[in-house]
Write a structure and sequence with these properties.
- By secondary structure, the chain is of the alpha/beta class.
- The protein has 15 helices and 20 strands.
- The chain has a nine-stranded mixed beta sheet, sandwiched between helices.
Amino acid sequence: MIKKTKKLVIITGYFTGESYGLLGPQMAATIINDHTDHEAIVVGITNEDDKQDLKTALNRYFKDRQKVVGFSSLGGRPDLFDFAKDLKDGGAVTILAGPQAGPDYKGEIDWRTYPHRFKGLSDYFSFALHGPAQQIIPVLASGRDDMSKFEGVSYKDKKNRIIENLAAPWDDGYLSKVDWQTLHVLKNAAFEPLTVTTAQILQQIGCQYAAKERQISIDYPGGVKKKGSQPSFITICQKGCSFCDVAADKGYLGAVNEVAIKEQLLSLPESPDGRKIPFELINESPLFKLVRILELADELSLELSQINLTLRADYLLKGLQPLEEALEIAQKKDIRILLSSIGFESFDDTILKNLNKGVNRQQNLDAIKAIRELKPKYPAHFGYLKEEGANHGFIHPTPWDNRETSYETNKIISMYRLSLDILPNHSTPLIIHHASGLADWIRQIELRENIEFERVGTTIGWWQTT
């Protein structure tokens, strides 16, 4: 065992009153604890947490040691960016990690030429780490005098230029273990351990839909009047959904091997009844490998309680037979299968086209019909209802909303009674990350029409021109 002489904290966004695990940050903390001389914990920070209390807690945790603070999965929160800069200015080593860490560190494309664009976070963090978490091991083992030798690192050189090193390949050997006891929350200006009640199992890295690049045409926003004779659409090349920054970040990197998946299953905490706690299966097309997860648990003599699935409507339709095969097994073993999030996103074909969802309204409705028919067959072991914990994707408002789309959408919602079991309590406004496909769309509109859209942290405010 490596002697622990240093400490590290990974700060991440979190929701008040929750107790879910954080696969990325907690897997990173596990790797750091297993392979370096740093003792790492993860701290979930809510919007309500006081930053002065957080600073006090960090001082208590590190005492007289060098502060090394990672930031991951921040959800574009400017308050955490500012907090990181405050720490860095005070002498701490601050590390930006997680999805889109590299682009967020570097800033939006051509921001030096167009000053209204997002300037990046290179002044806020000592460096960024993009790609697999094991890349931090040699960085922590060194004095960081020569950052050019580290894979996956973005940093400023002595001439203040931003340098981005290529990331290392993903290695299943580092994806086999997660210590779910590393998560903490802020309480009374100190870090208090949080018992995780829902975890994650990584079965697939990225999304298969993001594997192939496509040329797509996206309509102008409703609030922008086209000048001149050019078309009222913008053509871009896109992998995956046009709003998905993760698709741009990872694309599709394939499946995790079964040895690693078995280790992840073994690492899951147990509930008081001896069963493994519920977990989300990280796989955008999980149905064809769902039975195998149940078989692997059997091979390990593990009792599962609940598996949560996130998937696309078309993948659901393609996988109905293997889903029912899994439900037959789950019913016998008293395991619950919850479709926790189906990415419907819209029930208007124009909006679905502009989001590049790769599905149409009818496919969404067919998927809803299918799961409604499955529910009575497996009432206790199959879930998809919002009162059962599901939160299905519904993006609204969008730049393409108008009187016609609103009428059609509301008609569909009423005809198919979607508010009863499908629609979430609150829709999600379209978020355009500066490195997503829709950001390319926005920038082309700006140049073509000589307008500027507002930047809000790492996102582009499509609703507001400046």
